[in-house]
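Quick one:
INPUT:
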C-alpha cells in the first residue's frame, strides 16, 4: 500500500478526534513531498485561471462588447463587486461545509463550474440576442458563475494547506503556497496577457477554461484529505467562532488585514489594466491590445516581486512572529499604494517604483494574516474560521472596488490606489497597538504554545 492510499484510508475509516492533538501531526508526517508538490501545482493553476479571467475583463468589455471609456471604471468595478457579493453569500457557509464533507469535493466541483462557464462565455452575444437581453447582463451572469467556481476552490485550498501543516512549519509551507500564487499571477501577466494580441481575446478566454478543467482532474487525482470530516452540527458554529474572535486579539487583526489585503491584487490588476487600456486612447498608434500587453508586463513585474519576496516573508514570519510581520507588511504596502498617486502616465517607467514597493508589501499582507488565522483556528472548526476570514475579505473587495470604481471615474485613475494606501497605513497604526499590547500573551487557548506570535 503506498503512502497516498495509507493517508486516504486513515482519513476515511478512522475519524480523528479533536481531543487527540497528536493525531493530525501524525498524518502530516505521513505526507510525502509529492503531496505538497501536487498542492503547489493546483495553487498555480487556480491562480492562473482567476487572474487570467480578471485581467481579460477590461479588454473583453472594450473589444468584444464595445464598452466605452466614460463608465469603464464603474462597470469593471461593478462586475467585480457583484461577483464578490455573490461570493460573500457562500464563502463562509462553504467553509463550514468543508468541515462536514471535506475540502477536495468542493475544489473539484469549483474547477468544473469555472472551466465550463469560461469555455461558454464567448457565446454571450449570441445568448443575449436569442433571449433579447442586454449582452452586459449576460456577461454579469457569466462572471458570477466563474467567480462562484473560484469561491468553491480557493478558500478550500487555503484550508487544506493548513491541514497539510503544523504550527511550527506553517509559515514556510504557506510561503511556498504564496510563491506558487505569485507564480500563477506573474505568468498570466507576463505571458498569457501577450496572447490576445496574437490569438485574440476569445481564444485566450477558452484557454482559461481549459486550465480550470485540468485543475479539476489534478485535484481529483492528486490531493488527499488530511482531516476526517466529522462535524455533526447541522448549522454554522457561529458561537464558537465568535467566542474565538472575542478572545483572540490576533485573530481580530488577521480579519482586519484580510479586509484590506485580499483586495490588493484585485485592485491593482483591475484598475491598472483599465487605466492602461483607456489611456491608450490618448496616444497615437497604441491599440487597446498593445496597452493591455504593456499593462500585463507591469503587473507581471508586481507578481515577480511577490514571487521573489514571499519566501523571505515566510522566514521573517517564523523568526520575528506573525504580528510584527503584519506590521511591517502593512507599512510597506501603504507606502507603495500612496506613492502610486504620484504617477501621471502609466506608460512611464516611473510606475515601476511604486509597483515594486506594493509587491514587497503585498507578499507579506497576503501570507501572514492567513498564517495567523490558521494558527488560531482549532482543527475541528478550521474550515469555518477560514470561511469567516474569507467572508471578511469579500466585504473588503466589495467595498474597495465600489469606492475605487467611483474614484477612478470621478477623480482620476490613481485615486483608488491612493485611497488604498491611506487605509493600509491606518491599519498599520492599529497593528502597532496590538503588537505593543502586553495582554496579547498566548493568542490561542489549549496546549499549543503560540507565545512567539
Amino acid at each position: 500500500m503506498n503512502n497516498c492510499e495509507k493517508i486516504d484510508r486513515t482519513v476515511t475509516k478512522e475519524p480523528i478526534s479533536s481531543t487527540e492533538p497528536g493525531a493530525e501531526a501524525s498524518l502530516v508526517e505521513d505526507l510525502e513531498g509529492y503531496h505538497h508538490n501536487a498542492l503547489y501545482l493546483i495553487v498555480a493553476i487556480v491562480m492562473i485561471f482567476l487572474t487570467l479571467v480578471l485581467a481579460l475583463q477590461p479588454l473583453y468589455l472594450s473589444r468584444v462588447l464595445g464598452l466605452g471609456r466614460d463608465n469603464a471604471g464603474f462597470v469593471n468595478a461593478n462586475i467585480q463587486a457583484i461577483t464578490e457579493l455573490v461570493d460573500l453569500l457562500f464563502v463562509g457557509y462553504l467553509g463550514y461545509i468543508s468541515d462536514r464533507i471535506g475540502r477536495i469535493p468542493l475544489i473539484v466541483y469549483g474547477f468544473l463550474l469555472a472551466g465550463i462557464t469560461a469555455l461558454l462565455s464567448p457565446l454571450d452575444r449570441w445568448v443575449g440576442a436569442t433571449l433579447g437581453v442586454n449582452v452586459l447582463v449576460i456577461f454579469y451572469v457569466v462572471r458570477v458563475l466563474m467567480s462562484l467556481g473560484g469561491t468553491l476552490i480557493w478558500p478550500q485550498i487555503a484550508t487544506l494547506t493548513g491541514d497539510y501543516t503544523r504550527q511550527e512549519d506553517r509559515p514556510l509551507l504557506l510561503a511556498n503556497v504564496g510563491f506558487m500564487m505569485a507564480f500563477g499571477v506573474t505568468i498570466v501577466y507576463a505571458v498569457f496577457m501577450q496572447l490576445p494580441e496574437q490569438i485574440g481575446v476569445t481564444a485566450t478566454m477558452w484557454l482559461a477554461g481549459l486550465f480550470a478543467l485540468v485543475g479539476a482532474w489534478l485535484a481529483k487525482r492528486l490531493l488527499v484529505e488530511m482531516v476526517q470530516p466529522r462535524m455533526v452540527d447541522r448549522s454554522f458554529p457561529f458561537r464558537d467562532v465568535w467566542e474565538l474572535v472575542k478572545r483572540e486579539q490576533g485573530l481580530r487583526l488577521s480579519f482586519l488585514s484580510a479586509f484590506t489585503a485580499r483586495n490588493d491584487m484585485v485592485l491593482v490588476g483591475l484598475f491598472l489594466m483599465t487605466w492602461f487600456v483607456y489611456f491608450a486612447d490618448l496616444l497615437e498608434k497604441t491599440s487597446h491590445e498593445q496597452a493591455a500587453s504593456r499593462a500585463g508586463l507591469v503587473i507581471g513585474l508586481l507578481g515577480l516581486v511577490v514571487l521573489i519576496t514571499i519566501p523571505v516573508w515566510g522566514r521573517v514570519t517564523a523568526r520575528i512572529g506573525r504580528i510584527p510581520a503584519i506590521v511591517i507588511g502593512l507599512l510597506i504596502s501603504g507606502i507603495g499604494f500612496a506613492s502610486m498617486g504620484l504617477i501621471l502616465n502609466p506608460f512611464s517607467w516611473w510606475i515601476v517604483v511604486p509597483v515594486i514597493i506594493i509587491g514587497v508589501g503585498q507578499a507579506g499582507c497576503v501570507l501572514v494574516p492567513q498564517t495567523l488565522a490558521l494558527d488560531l483556528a482549532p482543527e475541528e472548526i478550521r474550515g469555518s474560521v477560514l470561511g469567516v476570514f474569507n467572508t471578511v475579505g469579500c466585504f473588503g473587495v466589495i467595498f474597495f472596488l465600489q469606492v475605487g470604481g467611483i474614484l477612478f471615474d470621478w477623480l482620476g485613475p490613481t485615486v483608488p490606489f491612493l485611497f488604498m494606501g491611506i487605509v493600509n497605513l491606518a491599519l498599520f497604526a492599529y497593528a502597532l497597538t496590538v503588537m505593543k499590547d502586553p495582554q496579547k500573551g498566548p493568542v490561542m487557548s489549549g496546549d499549543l504554545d503560540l507565545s512567539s506570535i
